[in-house]
Design goal:
By secondary structure, the protein is low in regular secondary structure. It contains no helices and 2 strands. Residues 6-67 form the DUF1540 domain.
């Protein structure tokens, strides 16, 4: 799969480019319940947290506006 177009409105991020485009190599999306948690952050060669999994009830449980619950 080619890299999908990722839109972002956080203009002070180093991965933000004109047109609200994100050019980060890796994107980490979390549920809102973890918003204040000290989770690992990726930067350069650092790894993102890939060990835990969560479930969101609907789009309002995430900051991901494209969230659609998987039905299978």
């Amino acid at each position: 799969m080619e890299h999908p177009m990722v839109k972002c409105s956080v203009a002070n991020c180093q991965h933000w480019e004109d047109g609200n485009n994100c050019v980060a190599e890796t994107i980490m999306i979390e549920i809102n319940a973890h918003a204040g948690s000290p989770l690992p952050q990726g930067s350069g060669s650092e790894q993102y947290d890939t060990k835990h999994q969560d479930s969101a009830g609907d789009v309002t449980d995430t900051c991901c506006h494209t969230f659609v619950e998987r039905t299978h």
